[in-house]
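Section 5: illustrative case.
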């Protein structure tokens, strides 16, 4: 196993693994920490597709690009204490990053995107009741539709940290018979004690038909497809 990224935003993945310069990475839920993504890109020279409609996340990505052009540039947002230390030796090819200004869902739509009470916090949610009643409206789409738009036939690694909408997006992914080689999923609905319909256990049981669990770090779960 190998952990990539900060304590807050990092993930454990199998090591060695099947990732390479042709790999397609979908990373949904950018927030203000892309240390996992810059490390993946540095290690494997892979293609990273960041998916997040949050305005602060877009600003953060733009600031990270500037940081890698000039290491004296200050990255935007509420930065984790170990962020700079974690990424300072990375050398990502930022031309292989694509930013998709959408949220993950089960269809194409425009939905309410609920804000947190503390305006300094970056995360927002498509799920009513996770945060406050204040919201923006954002475009959302399914994994399949995004893949079609991007011209992709397969995803090598899918990371999802989308504040409670993960089960809806994953359910549709399985219906569409899409099986990324690796999954890194934060099961926020259960973590936040908002999973009143037990959908997390249901989706995990469906995933286990196709995947093995590599690690479960407090409901941050890495899966690897069965051989």
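Designed sequence:
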């Amino acid at each position: 196993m190998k952990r990539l990224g900060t304590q807050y935003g990092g993930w454990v993945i199998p090591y060695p693994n099947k990732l390479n310069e042709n790999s397609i990475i979908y990373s949904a839920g950018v927030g203000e920490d892309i240390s996992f993504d810059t490390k993946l890109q540095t290690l494997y020279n892979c293609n990273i597709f960041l998916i997040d409609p949050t305005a602060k996340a877009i600003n953060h990505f733009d600031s990270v690009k500037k940081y890698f052009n000039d290491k004296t540039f200050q990255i935007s947002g509420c930065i984790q204490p170990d962020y700079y230390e974690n990424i300072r030796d990375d050398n990502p090819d930022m031309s292989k990053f694509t930013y998709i200004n959408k949220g993950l869902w089960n269809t194409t739509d425009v939905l309410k995107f609920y804000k947190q009470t503390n305006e300094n916090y970056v995360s927002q949610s498509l799920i009513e009741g996770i945060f406050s009643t204040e919201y923006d409206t954002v475009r959302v789409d399914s994994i399949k539709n995004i893949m079609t738009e991007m011209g992709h036939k397969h995803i090598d690694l899918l990371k999802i940290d989308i504040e409670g909408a993960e089960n809806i997006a994953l359910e549709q992914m399985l219906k569409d018979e899409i099986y990324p080689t690796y999954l890194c999923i934060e099961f926020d609905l259960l973590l936040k004690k908002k999973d009143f319909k037990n959908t997390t256990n249901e989706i995990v049981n469906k995933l286990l038909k196709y995947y093995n669990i590599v690690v479960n770090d407090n409901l941050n779960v890495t899966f690897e497809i069965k051989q």
